[in-house]
Write a sequence for this structure.
């Protein structure tokens, strides 16, 4: 059984444990899709289906795998008083959903992939929050279990493999940061309907300097000259939006 399937089964169990379908408004379905399509300016080059090939001048960067550890993925209501009116007391139970830690294999070649479907109450949600998370083998129980299943991710939140000008590389980072992204327009979940949120990760931005030239990913490993540059690029590369047709493009959304 694949690690991704195991992760999804674990996440489904976690959601079922904290969402029983009771209370005002029945739970609806929202899918979470990941995309690596670039936003804004076109890439200098993006070729292939199973990898990303980026070219800048004489430099060629081929990304064959990009994996990210996320946890505490939450959709937040636009009305913070909703829980008080419902009388459920705990904002986390009423206004958010949480899952993780989870390992996401980002789809390459500008592709999209739906990795998770969750039940959620009807309502309006205007923000998605999540953590890019560095699990530790001596941390919380959930972290220990995750690292036991994915030993390459002990104190590693992101792992990228590929080649730089023909030489294989492995890039890892201990980036540990909370991300808060507004949903514009807000996500509206109504009775009898389902929808989808796409979390777009612009891989093209990760290994570029201020002038837009590519940098060697190995130079961004811990202690490398481009470590902080790439960490900042990663933090700025996330975008989220409602995407009912799951094509990773927000331009055709209402």
């Amino acid at each position: 059984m694949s690690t991704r399937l195991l992760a999804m089964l674990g996440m489904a169990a976690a959601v079922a444990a904290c969402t029983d379908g009771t209370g005002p408004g029945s739970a609806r379905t929202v899918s979470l899709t990941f995309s690596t399509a670039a936003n804004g300016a076109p890439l200098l080059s993006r070729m292939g289906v199973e990898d990303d090939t980026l070219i800048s001048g004489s430099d060629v960067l081929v990304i064959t795998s990009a994996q990210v550890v996320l946890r505490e993925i939450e959709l937040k209501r636009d009305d913070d008083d909703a829980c008080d009116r419902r009388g459920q007391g705990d904002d986390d139970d009423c206004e958010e959903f949480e899952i993780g830690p989870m390992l996401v294999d980002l789809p390459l070649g500008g592709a999209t992939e739906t990795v998770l479907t969750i039940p959620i109450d009807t309502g309006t949600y205007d923000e998605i929050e999540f953590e890019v998370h560095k699990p530790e083998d001596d941390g919380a129980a959930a972290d220990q279990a995750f690292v036991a299943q994915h030993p390459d991710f002990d104190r590693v939140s992101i792992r990228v493999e590929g080649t730089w000008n023909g030489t294989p590389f492995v890039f890892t980072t201990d980036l540990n940061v909370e991300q808060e992204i507004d949903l514009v327009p807000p996500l509206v979940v109504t009775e009898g309907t389902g929808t989808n949120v796409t979390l777009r990760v612009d891989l093209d931005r990760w290994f570029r300097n201020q002038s837009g030239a590519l940098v060697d990913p190995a130079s961004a490993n811990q202690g490398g000259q481009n470590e902080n540059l790439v960490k900042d690029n990663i933090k700025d590369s996330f975008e989220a939006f409602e995407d009912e047709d799951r094509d990773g493009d927000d331009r055709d959304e209402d």
